[in-house]
Amino acid sequence: MEKYVAVESVSQVFDTAHGPFTALNNINLAIRKGEFVSLIGHSGCGKSTLLNLIAGLNKPSSGVLICDQREIAGPGPDRAMVFQNHSLLPWYTCFQNVYLAVERVFGASETKARLRERTAAALELVDLAHASSKYPREISGGMKQRVGIARALAIEPKVLLMDEPLAPWMR
Length: 171
Prior knowledge:
It is a peripheral membrane protein. Residues 5-170 form the ABC transporter domain. GO terms for molecular function: ATP binding; ATP hydrolysis activity. Belongs to the ABC transporter superfamily. This protein is α+β, with helices and mostly antiparallel strands and 171 residues long. The chain folds into 2 domains: 3-71, 3-Layer(aba) Sandwich (Rossmann fold), CATH 3.40.50; 79-170, 3-Layer(aba) Sandwich (Rossmann fold), CATH 3.40.50.300. The chain is 29% helix and 26% strand. The chain is built from 4 helices and 6 strands, in the order ββαβββαααβ. It is globular. The termini are far apart.
């Protein structure tokens, strides 16, 4: 099987007040389509940094990242990220937070009714249909995280990146 996600000689150096900080150094990783991979390591070892690079949220200091035979040059709907923090817009309801992503990805090709169906199905999948009209301030931390998961799944990404998605539930 051919590699679907490739991390080739990737390094990430951040400029800090105390000089350069190397978060990742010469990382190589190949993931095949359909594989489930977990990154395990101590706090601060670069797991989130690597996920952010694969998501296209940051560019590496050196090396190359590839997804589906194309270089990752920025974020895209083929890769969805579930963050450690829920990253919900507080002025939007749970439904609206998921719908926003769905509309961005499918708005040009699907009807508004289909976009609403897709959003409702994603909230149902994470058992939050009952909370669709609630705002983030009105739900628990675990529920907020599930809204983030619903948002990621609703856009049907080819790669789902999850940065400690269960951490709020495990505290």
